[in-house]
Prior knowledge:
Blueprint: E1 21-25, H1 30-40, E2 44-46, H2 50-53, E3 58-62, E4 65-71, E5 84-87, H3 90-99, E6 105-106, E7 116-120, E8 126-131, H4 134-139
Parallel strand pairs: 1-4, 5-8
Antiparallel strand pairs: 2-3, 3-4, 6-7, 7-8
Amino acid sequence: MQAQPQTPGAAAPPFVRLDHVQLAMPEGEEERARAFYGGILGLEEVPKPPELAKRGGAWFRSGPVFVHLGVDRPFAPAKKAHPAFRCADYGRLLEHLRASGIEIVPDDLPFEGKDHCYIADPFGNRIELIEVDRNLRRSGRKG
Protein backbone atom coordinates (compact mmCIF):
# COMPACT_ATOMS: atom_id res chain seq x y z
CA MET A 1 0.00 0.00 0.00
CA GLN A 2 1.46 3.34 -1.04
CA ALA A 3 1.34 6.34 1.34
CA GLN A 4 -1.01 9.08 0.28
CA PRO A 5 0.10 12.72 0.60
CA GLN A 6 -1.66 14.84 3.21
CA THR A 7 -4.04 17.41 1.78
CA PRO A 8 -5.38 20.52 3.51
CA GLY A 9 -8.40 19.59 5.62
CA ALA A 10 -7.40 15.93 5.72
CA ALA A 11 -7.36 14.00 8.98
CA ALA A 12 -4.26 14.37 11.14
CA PRO A 13 -1.58 11.68 10.82
CA PRO A 14 -2.47 8.66 12.96
CA PHE A 15 0.77 8.74 14.98
CA VAL A 16 1.82 11.70 17.11
CA ARG A 17 5.16 10.49 18.55
CA LEU A 18 7.21 7.40 19.18
CA ASP A 19 6.37 6.00 22.61
CA HIS A 20 9.45 3.81 23.19
CA VAL A 21 12.10 1.66 21.59
CA GLN A 22 12.48 -1.94 22.68
CA LEU A 23 15.79 -3.74 22.50
CA ALA A 24 16.42 -7.38 23.32
CA MET A 25 18.64 -8.59 26.12
CA PRO A 26 19.65 -12.00 27.46
CA GLU A 27 17.80 -13.50 30.40
CA GLY A 28 19.17 -12.60 33.84
CA GLU A 29 21.32 -9.66 32.67
CA GLU A 30 19.32 -6.83 34.26
CA GLU A 31 22.28 -5.64 36.38
CA ARG A 32 24.45 -5.27 33.25
CA ALA A 33 21.59 -3.35 31.62
CA ARG A 34 21.36 -1.05 34.66
CA ALA A 35 25.12 -0.52 34.72
CA PHE A 36 25.16 0.53 31.05
CA TYR A 37 21.86 2.34 30.50
CA GLY A 38 21.61 3.84 33.99
CA GLY A 39 25.26 4.09 35.02
CA ILE A 40 27.08 4.93 31.79
CA LEU A 41 24.36 6.54 29.65
CA GLY A 42 22.68 8.19 32.64
CA LEU A 43 19.12 7.14 31.86
CA GLU A 44 16.67 6.90 34.74
CA GLU A 45 15.25 3.45 35.40
CA VAL A 46 11.45 3.35 35.25
CA PRO A 47 9.65 0.64 37.23
CA LYS A 48 7.95 -1.92 35.01
CA PRO A 49 4.31 -2.72 35.73
CA PRO A 50 4.22 -5.78 38.07
CA GLU A 51 2.64 -8.05 35.44
CA LEU A 52 5.47 -7.20 32.99
CA ALA A 53 8.25 -7.26 35.59
CA LYS A 54 7.77 -11.03 35.86
CA ARG A 55 9.16 -11.35 32.32
CA GLY A 56 12.50 -9.75 33.25
CA GLY A 57 14.17 -6.87 31.46
CA ALA A 58 14.29 -3.22 32.45
CA TRP A 59 12.87 0.13 31.31
CA PHE A 60 14.75 3.42 31.14
CA ARG A 61 14.06 7.02 30.19
CA SER A 62 15.73 10.34 29.52
CA GLY A 63 13.05 13.03 29.41
CA PRO A 64 10.59 11.95 26.69
CA VAL A 65 12.93 9.22 25.35
CA PHE A 66 12.05 5.71 26.60
CA VAL A 67 14.08 2.54 26.09
CA HIS A 68 12.63 -0.82 27.06
CA LEU A 69 14.88 -3.86 27.33
CA GLY A 70 13.03 -7.11 27.02
CA VAL A 71 14.31 -10.64 27.56
CA ASP A 72 14.53 -12.54 24.31
CA ARG A 73 14.94 -16.33 24.24
CA PRO A 74 17.04 -17.23 22.38
CA PHE A 75 18.83 -13.88 22.45
CA ALA A 76 20.33 -12.30 19.33
CA PRO A 77 21.56 -8.68 19.37
CA ALA A 78 20.36 -6.14 16.80
CA LYS A 79 23.50 -5.52 14.73
CA LYS A 80 21.91 -3.35 12.01
CA ALA A 81 18.49 -2.22 13.28
CA HIS A 82 19.00 0.40 15.98
CA PRO A 83 17.59 3.34 17.89
CA ALA A 84 19.17 6.72 17.14
CA PHE A 85 19.37 9.25 19.96
CA ARG A 86 19.88 13.01 19.56
CA CYS A 87 22.43 14.05 22.18
CA ALA A 88 22.32 17.39 24.00
CA ASP A 89 26.12 17.51 24.52
CA TYR A 90 27.47 15.09 21.94
CA GLY A 91 31.16 15.88 22.49
CA ARG A 92 30.99 15.53 26.27
CA LEU A 93 29.01 12.29 25.94
CA LEU A 94 31.66 10.80 23.64
CA GLU A 95 34.41 11.77 26.10
CA HIS A 96 32.44 10.09 28.89
CA LEU A 97 31.87 6.96 26.81
CA ARG A 98 35.57 6.68 25.91
CA ALA A 99 36.53 7.13 29.59
CA SER A 100 34.03 4.35 30.43
CA GLY A 101 35.68 1.98 27.96
CA ILE A 102 32.88 2.08 25.39
CA GLU A 103 34.04 1.60 21.79
CA ILE A 104 32.83 4.40 19.52
CA VAL A 105 32.45 3.62 15.83
CA PRO A 106 32.55 6.93 13.95
CA ASP A 107 30.68 7.53 10.72
CA ASP A 108 32.44 10.00 8.43
CA LEU A 109 29.27 10.70 6.47
CA PRO A 110 27.25 13.37 8.30
CA PHE A 111 23.63 12.59 9.13
CA GLU A 112 21.61 15.63 8.03
CA GLY A 113 24.79 17.70 8.49
CA LYS A 114 25.31 16.47 12.05
CA ASP A 115 28.09 14.37 13.55
CA HIS A 116 27.04 10.87 14.55
CA CYS A 117 28.54 7.58 15.60
CA TYR A 118 27.59 4.12 16.80
CA ILE A 119 28.12 2.29 20.06
CA ALA A 120 26.95 -1.11 21.29
CA ASP A 121 25.24 -1.91 24.56
CA PRO A 122 26.75 -4.74 26.66
CA PHE A 123 24.64 -7.23 24.74
CA GLY A 124 25.80 -6.14 21.26
CA ASN A 125 22.74 -4.07 20.28
CA ARG A 126 23.71 -1.20 17.97
CA ILE A 127 22.89 2.36 19.13
CA GLU A 128 23.36 5.49 17.04
CA LEU A 129 24.22 8.81 18.69
CA ILE A 130 23.55 12.05 16.79
CA GLU A 131 24.54 15.54 17.84
CA VAL A 132 21.71 18.02 18.32
CA ASP A 133 21.37 20.55 15.51
CA ARG A 134 24.05 23.18 16.18
CA ASN A 135 21.76 26.07 15.23
CA LEU A 136 18.99 24.90 17.55
CA ARG A 137 21.49 24.34 20.36
CA ARG A 138 22.81 27.92 20.01
CA SER A 139 19.29 29.37 20.01
CA GLY A 140 18.26 27.41 23.10
CA ARG A 141 15.54 25.46 21.23
CA LYS A 142 15.51 21.68 21.24
CA GLY A 143 16.11 19.71 18.07
